[in-house]
Automatic annotation (TrEMBL):
Single GO MF annotation: heme binding
Protein name as it appears in the record: Cytochrome c1
Originating species: Neisseria perflava
The Cytochrome c domain, residue ranges: 41-133
Subcellular location: Membrane
Residues in the signal sequence: 1-23
Entry annotated with the keyword Cell inner membrane: no
Pfam families per UniProt: Cytochrom_C1
Transmembrane segments: 234-253
Keywords, comma-separated and alphabetical: Heme, Iron, Membrane, Metal-binding, Signal, Transmembrane, Transmembrane helix
GO cellular component: membrane
Cofactor(s), names only, from the UniProt record: heme c
Manner of cofactor binding, per the entry note: Binds 1 heme c group covalently per subunit.
Residues that bind heme c: 54, 57-58
Length: 262
């Protein structure tokens, strides 16, 4: 019995840091993104970005188009603006690109994104979508500060602009430490996009692009569990019932049973 308790305790100690790593995408120092699943405008914009830019290559086989009605979209709006791979609003979100073609062009089939936010964490995705830079050494011409050697090209380069890595005299990337002490390539801006702008001193403001990516990540978090807000509401109702009804009832029932003893 004693050995069993020790085994359970050891397993618990191992599970805690592992759970924390999964929740943060395996990295504790990513900039935190503000996720608000009650912000329907953000979710609708994120769904539009996802279907326009992500669904070309990635599927979301656990998500049906008609679930977007839960974030305030009508069936007509979904059909007119968000459905490019099917005509049936009850179908799941399937990528426009054939997986065989994707494997040939990208080296591997793009992963399904239904649960990507639950797997990697919102902060990881927010950093990843802001971390692309031009890299001529890569087959697709792009690399990423969060996932080095990523085979995915930058789908939102027109919105963000183009970052490039600074090279030293030997043609090797110049590496610097970021604000968290992590080694990362030193980047400079080649051009700015639709959602970023360059000041006269060369500094680039990305607030618009950051908000753009935040809406996308907000939607990805929603897509991982569309019923999350409903589950929370039910949980609050159950707790309210337990404390407001069952607890007083149990208390007075206990007093009634034990009144003769006391």
């Amino acid at each position: 019995m004693k050995q069993t308790l020790k085994n359970w305790f050891a397993a618990l100690l191992l599970a805690v840091p592992m759970s924390a790593a999964v929740a943060s995408g395996g990295h504790a120092n990513y900039e935190k993104v503000d996720i608000d699943l009650r912000d329907q405008v953000s979710l609708q914009h994120g769904a539009q970005i996802f279907t326009n830019y992500c669904l070309s290559c990635h599927s979301a086989s656990g998500m049906r188009f008609n679930r977007l009605k839960d974030i305030g979209l009508t069936e007509d709006e979904i059909k007119k603006n968000l459905m490019f791979t099917t005509d049936n609003v009850g179908d799941v979100m399937v990528a426009a690109m054939d997986p065989k073609d994707a494997s040939k062009w990208l080296g591997a089939p793009p992963p399904d994104l239904t649960l990507i936010a639950r797997s990697k964490g919102a902060d990881y995705l927010y950093a990843y979508m802001r971390g692309f830079y031009k890299d001529p050494t890569r087959p697709n011409g792009w690399n990423n500060t969060v996932l080095a050697g990523a085979s995915m090209p930058h789908p939102l380069w027109e919105q963000q602009g183009v970052q490039a890595v600074e090279l030293d005299a030997k043609g090797q990337p110049v590496m610097i430490k970021d604000e968290h002490g992590n080694l990362t390539p030193k980047l400079y801006w080649e051009s700015t996009g639709l959602h970023s702008r360059r000041l006269p001193n060369g500094k680039v403001i990305q607030k618009e692009y950051d908000a753009y990516v935040r809406d996308l990540v907000n939607y990805l978090v929603y897509m991982g569990e569309p019923a999350q807000l409903q589950r929370h509401r039910i949980g609050y109702m159950v707790l309210t019932f337990l404390f407001a009804v069952m607890l007083p009832l149990a208390y007075f029932l206990k007093k009634e049973f034990w009144k003769d003893v006391h």
